[in-house]
Amino acid sequence: MIHQNRLLTVALLFTDIDGSTALWRDVPEMPALLAAHDTVLEAAFAAHGGRVFNKAGDGYCVSFLSPTDAIAAALEGQRALLMVREQHQRPDFTVRMAIHVGEVIERAHDFLGTPLAYTRRLLDLARGGQVLVSRPAATLASQSLPSGASLEDVGQRQLRDMRSPEHIFRLRHPDLAAPDIAEDVRNTASTNLPVLLTSFIGREALLRDALGALHAHRLVTLVGAGGCGKTRLALRTAEELLGSYPDGVWFVSLEAVRDPQDVPFRVCAVLQVGGTGEEPMPSSACHELEDKQLLLILDNCEHLLESCRALLGKMLTACPGVSVLATSRELLGVPGEAILRVPPMEIPANARSL
Fold first, then answer.
1. pLDDT confidence of residue 173
2. 3-state helix/strand/coil string of the chain
3. What CA–CA distance (Å, rounded) separates 335 from 133?
4. CATH 3.40.50.300, applies to 204-341
5. pLDDT value at 178 more than 60
6. CATH topology of domain 6-176
7. Average pLDDT rounded to a whole number, residues 259-275
8. Residue-wise pLDDT tens digits, 126-138
9. What does the alpha-carbon distance between residue 239 and residue 234 come to, in Å, rounded to a whole number?
């Protein structure tokens, strides 16, 4: 049976643990914190009619009937997370949230459409403990906020890949005014990641594996056949890590590169560092990157293996704060490389029967 796509107006609430990369690296009790995080947030979502339609890594994507419900759930969740921080004595364990409302296409148990990309870009601006609200959501919810809550106008911000600045609001409540919560909103995310207009369903286990591998290794290569979804997995992993690298998350596609000598210069151009000279990785670029903390996504390496191997070997040795997530049909062969094999994408049973 074929189910027609439905056009719906929903309120969206996205969440993310702020600085999770460092927490997983430095906090032994992170598994217990994550379990408590999941318990209190899922209870808050359910109490206000929320439906979790995607959970990837440590973040949730939840739909509600109205932005009023989404705001109430966010407030309840943040208040519960305050108690989690106190119980575990981890003031650095904070969650950022974003709320938007818009028209989406419902397909099976998923949603498609630009409101998802908008909400994720809004989430990029938030700091731990903050709930940011788009102007459409704020307008609809302003007369029915939870007791003691208000929406503070923080002005216009440029969301990445949006055509013009957007008016942003921040949820305020006495219980959220903890001194460990940063009061300012990020100006913008340091990244050039392309917008993903769909949510990520069916490969959550692979996403968790990729995030875990990057917590433990500075070079992770997603290896699999062409068309198996390596690039999509790399981009989704990178989105989860926005905000975890002070100097950004940067995407370099090598698909159209044919000359191996062009590889280091393509990377230098994206990272905006020195790109002159004849060395595999120009010394000037390594010098500029040696104090940086960033994640490089190097996509489609298989036809340029020697050049990629030379580039990454020098970069990872000279630049201790740089991590790399690569995609390739073959191993790169760089010392310290961690391999995550990506199997072919499965066709859902209902699609096979059509």
1. 92
2. CCCCCEEEEEEEEEEEECCHHHHHHHCCCHHHHHHHHHHHHHHHHHHCCCEEEEEECCEEEEEECCHHHHHHHHHHHHHHHHHHHHHHCCCCCCEEEEEEEEEEEEECCEEECHHHHHHHHHHHHCCCCCEEEEHHHHHHHCCCCCCCCEEEEEEEECCCCCCCCEEEEEEECHHHCCCCCCCCCCCCCCECCCCCCECCCCCHHHHHHHHHHHHHCCEEEEECCCCCCHHHHHHHHHHHCCCCCCCCEEEEECCCCCCHHHHHHHHHHHHCCCCCCCCCCCHHHHHHHCCCCEEEEEECCHHHHHHHHHHHHHHHHHCCCEEEEEEECCCCCCCCCEEEECCCCCCCHHHHCC
3. 45
4. yes
5. no
6. Alpha-Beta Plaits (3.30.70)
7. 84
8. 888 999 999 999 9
9. 9
Q: Is 243 left (phi over 0), alpha (psi -120 to 50) or beta?
A: left
Pick the closest to residue 15 from 55, 72, 65, 48 (CA basis). 55
Confidence (pLDDT) at 57: 75
What residue spans define the domains of the chain? Answer: 6-176, 204-341
CB contact at 8 A, 323 and 295: yes
pLDDT tens readout for residues 50-108? 999 988 778 999 999 999 999 999 999 999 999 999 999 998 899 999 999 999 988 77
CB atoms within 10 A of CB 330: 11
pLDDT the model gives residue 7? 84
Mean pLDDT score of the chain, rounded to an integer? 85
CA nearest neighbour of 90 among 132, 38, 43, 28: 28
